[in-house]
Amino acid sequence: MVRAESTNDEWYDDDAAREVSHEASGARRLGLVRPPRFAFEVIAPESFEVAQTIADRLRAGTPVVVDLRGCAPELTGRLTDFCSGLVYAVDGSLQHVGAEVILLAPETVDVSGDEASAVRPPGFFNRR
Length: 128
Known about the structure:
Elements: H1 4-29, E1 41-43, H2 51-59, E2 64-67, H3 73-89, E3 93-98, E4 101-105
Parallel strand pairs: 1-2
Antiparallel strand pairs: 2-4, 3-4
Helix pairs in contact: 2-3
């Protein structure tokens, strides 16, 4: 003889077991969401040959900080002109972040915080 009480108990026990296994499998699939790692390249050029490295990094989507403080004036001028044309070609942006230090950012990276850019006319970044 089967009692109603035992039938209900089996039904609820079976249902509870399915919920636990569903939660357990859901917990295994759930992972922590980590923000993407943001990295940039810092380059202090000694010759114009580093221009290829700058272009490769920027085209790969990596922001590049170019420190021109130790460069000869002729090299500074050539690299500034090169970087200006490079960011124009890849729809990126160029910002002066210090004395003779420039930041090249690809179009996928938004650089904010430069209050002077609101008043600066758009265009090429000419030497000072």
